[in-house]
């Protein structure tokens, strides 16, 4: 079953299309990754799915129903973990979850028990009477999640839930995403951390300039670039290294120099046998070579190849 289908979804701010005829399908049971650089249109897309922002054009279907015509159905079946923390500092953790679960339509004793359950799920049961102003960043993020899941939505949307938190809380959140998925929720997970998306997501859409530029499993996305190889060469010092000379070598497409890690990364056409020539050039530049490794393509390489930009720097 398709849990979510976006059909030519468009959002314009004035003349600028932040989301531009974006189509994609999320199936039941998936952890679906939306991967894109800052400003690619991820949050705008999510805000439209969560009915927080009207679309300019196109359609959003949740389990076969158009959300614009089924507002209550959409509200009770979607849980949004927004990028900006949406919790009230002057309310206790329990009161926060109770309040949001009420907004999502829960009432009475069910509301109370589900609020407790969500706090337990996020490891905050001991803190239920505490105020979020005393929480660490990671605990606030967990409370933000508890508020979005108490009503047990079919579709949980997480907009960059691990931004700015410590590694331990990040691990906790990633594990929670997996558990929620195992318990039956379909998840949409947005991030510009390629490693997270690669680790968690069963299918991924790469978004750029408001459009889906590639969609598929990790393996399918990587197979787009099987005609490329990436070689990483570590040297003792990068001083004197001539990037333009490396770029003149047959087959070489891109050269990236990391002075801090003292490595040079060379992307090249896979079928051209040019490793000897690269090494020879580095030796001519006076480099002392420490290690050479041929890297498997990852989502970062896919992104770089499709958009011409690095996910981090753009
Ligand atoms: N209310 C608005 N008015 C005008 N432009 C907007 C508005 N909201 C978003 N934009 C623009 O739309 C584009 C997409 O923004 P969006 O926040 O959806 O990107 P994103 O992929 O979520 O990025 P980030 O990772 O930084 O959250 C950006 O260029 C942004 O400046």
From TrEMBL:
Keywords of the record: ATP-binding, Nucleotide-binding
Keyword rRNA-binding set for record: no
SUPFAM superfamilies: P-loop containing nucleoside triphosphate hydrolases
GO-annotated molecular function: ATP binding; ATP hydrolysis activity
Keyword Transferase: no
ABC transporter domain mapped to chain residues: 4-234
Identification of the protein by name: ABC transporter ATP-binding protein
Lineage: Bacteria, Bacillati, Bacillota, Bacilli, Bacillales
């Amino acid at each position: 079953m398709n849990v979510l289908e976006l059909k030519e979804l468009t959002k314009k701010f004035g003349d600028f299309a932040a989301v531009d005829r974006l189509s994609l399908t999320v199936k039941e049971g998936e952890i679906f990754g939306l991967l894109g650089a800052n400003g690619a249109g991820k949050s705008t897309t999510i805000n439209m799915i969560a009915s927080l922002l009207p679309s300019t054009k196109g359609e959003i279907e949740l389990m076969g129903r158009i959300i614009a015509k089924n507002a209550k159905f959409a509200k009770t079946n979607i849980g949004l973990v927004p990028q900006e923390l949406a919790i009230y500092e002057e309310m206790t953790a329990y009161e926060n979850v109770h309040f949001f679960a009420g907004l999502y339509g829960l009432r009475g004793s069910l509301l109370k028990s589900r609020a407790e359950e969500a706090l337990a799920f996020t490891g905050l049961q001991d803190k239920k009477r505490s105020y979020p102003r005393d929480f660490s960043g990671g605990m606030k993020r967990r409370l933000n999640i508890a508020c979005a899941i108490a009503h047990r939505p079919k579709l949980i949307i997480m907009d960059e839930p691990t931004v700015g938190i410590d590694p331990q809380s990040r691990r906790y959140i990633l594990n929670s995403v997996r558990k929620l998925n195992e318990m039956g929720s379909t998840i949409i997970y947005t991030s510009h951390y390629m490693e997270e998306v690669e680790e968690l997501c069963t299918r991924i859409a790469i978004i750029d300039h408001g459009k889906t530029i590639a969609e598929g499993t990790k393996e399918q996305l990587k197979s787009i670039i099987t005609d490329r190889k990436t070689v990483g060469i570590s040297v003792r010092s990068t001083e004197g290294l001539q990037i333009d000379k490396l770029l003149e070598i047959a087959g070489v497409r891109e050269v990236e120099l990391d002075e801090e890690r003292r490595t040079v990364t060379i992307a090249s056409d896979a079928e051209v046998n040019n490793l000897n020539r690269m090494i020879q050039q580095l030796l001519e530049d006076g480099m002392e070579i420490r290690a050479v490794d041929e890297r498997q393509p990852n989502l970062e390489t896919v992104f770089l190849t499709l958009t011409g930009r690095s996910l981090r720097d753009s």
